[in-house]
Design goal:
Elements (H helix, E strand, L loop, with lengths): L2 H17 L6 H9 L18 E6 L2 E7 L6 H17 L5 E3 L6 E5 L3 E2 L7 H15 L10 H15 L7 H11 L7 E4 L8 E3 L5 E3 L6 E4 H12 L3 H12 L5 H23 L12 H13 L6 H6 L11 H20 L8 H4 L4
Antiparallel strand pairs: 1-2, 2-4, 3-4, 5-7, 6-9, 7-8
Helix pairs in contact: 4-8, 5-6, 5-9, 7-9, 9-12
Length: 358
């Protein structure tokens, strides 16, 4: 074969394979739903091929089609499908409706109503605590993505893209990674990203968690802390939540332990939002000048306290919000972390659990 032709084929063949990747057939969706006597109007929907998650309507209700990527292995698909079935059967996740024989996708119910901070009266806090304990009690064999895994991922992204962060941030990340293995651990099945956007209510008011991509065995203290911090709960609310979780009034030591993990999770939040904090205009400025700008912003008082963002439902979208607002939210999380963990006088009593690094 001509050498030039062979080179051209090597370039074009991967492109051809990608462009001709098999798309989900409407008829396959219809066949899965037909088992439940749900009629899917195939001619009314065109799935978004750039996304893995598709929303469809059938019988006046909405459903989610979770599509796998071409590169996803058979094992990966089976694990996710079996996990979705397990969570559906226990009532902790959306109802599982089915999948095709080739495991190309699966379908679950769509649950629209988020459990917002304003809905968290004491009864709902206890329900949320009890439900979280139910999730943690699942018997499972695979590990999920921990905060350590996630902060490593996002800090590498920041460094690779040359994104400006405030003085002390990279050192704090290094300390977070170094000391993670020293922390108190209690293993359970964890959601992995338990924030208000992933906590929903059905029509009858019952709680259900969605978006289980990071789920697996993990540290339940870490998950409880993340839940507390992303809702911006105060100490009284934390006590009520833990009462539901434990089935009895929590000790002050238990509350302080969860508060420690809550403040610690602020560094992960800061890392995620810093990773999306620069615009194309920012990238034209030298990194030295960008660091000066971010340090000056950190010294200003032009942003809310971290928990207020959650309580008021004003957390900026990392992809669509104004980049200055993204920076302010990241800085708010960083400030909360610095005040409570880097300068950890508040947590001296926790040394008996976490060691001398505090």
């Amino acid at each position: 074969m001509n050498h030039k032709l062979l080179c051209l084929l090597c370039v074009l063949l991967p492109i051809f394979c990608i462009s001709n990747a098999r798309a989900i057939k409407d008829s396959d969706i219809a066949n899965v739903l037909h088992v439940h006597n749900i009629q899917f109007a195939q001619d009314k929907y065109k799935l978004n091929t750039s996304k893995r998650v598709h929303e469809i309507r059938a019988n006046e209700k909405r459903y989610i089609v979770m599509e796998f990527k071409n590169k996803d292995s058979d094992t990966y698909r089976l694990v996710e499908i079996e996990r979705a079935k397990m969570l559906s059967a226990s009532g902790c996740g959306p109802t599982f409706l089915g999948k095709p024989a080739n495991n190309e996708f699966y379908i679950v119910e769509f649950i629209d109503t988020p459990l917002k901070y304003d809905n968290l009266n004491d009864q709902k806090l206890r329900e949320l605590g009890k439900f979280t304990r139910k999730v943690h009690n699942h018997k499972y064999t695979k590990n999920g993505k921990s905060q350590l895994d996630r902060i490593k991922k996002h800090s590498k992204k920041i460094q690779k893209r040359g994104i400006a962060v405030p003085d002390g941030f990279n050192e704090a990340v290094d300390s977070f990674i170094k000391n993670s293995e020293k922390l108190d651990t209690k293993i359970g099945f964890c959601h992995g990203d338990l924030n208000p956007s992933n906590i929903r209510m059905r029509g009858d008011g019952s709680i259900v968690f969605i978006d289980w991509n990071n789920a697996g065995n993990g540290n339940v203290y870490e998950e409880l802390g993340y839940l507390v911090q992303t809702y911006g709960l105060d100490e009284r609310q934390i006590s009520v939540l833990l009462e539901g979780y434990l089935g009895e009034s929590p000790t002050q030591d238990y509350i302080d332990r969860v508060k420690f993990f809550a403040k610690r999770t602020c560094l992960l939040t800061a890392a995620v939002w810093f990773g999306f904090s620069e615009s194309s205009y920012d990238k034209k400025i030298s990194q030295k000048d960008r660091v000066k700008i971010i340090n000056d912003m950190a010294k200003s008082e032009g942003f809310m306290k971290f928990e207020e963002y959650s309580r008021k439902g004003q957390i900026p979208n990392v992809k669509s919000a104004n980049k200055d607002e993204v920076k302010k939210y990241a800085l708010s999380a960083w400030k909360e972390y610095k005040e409570n963990i880097v300068g950890a006088n508040f947590f001296d009593k926790l040394k008996k659990w976490f060691g001398s690094f505090l």
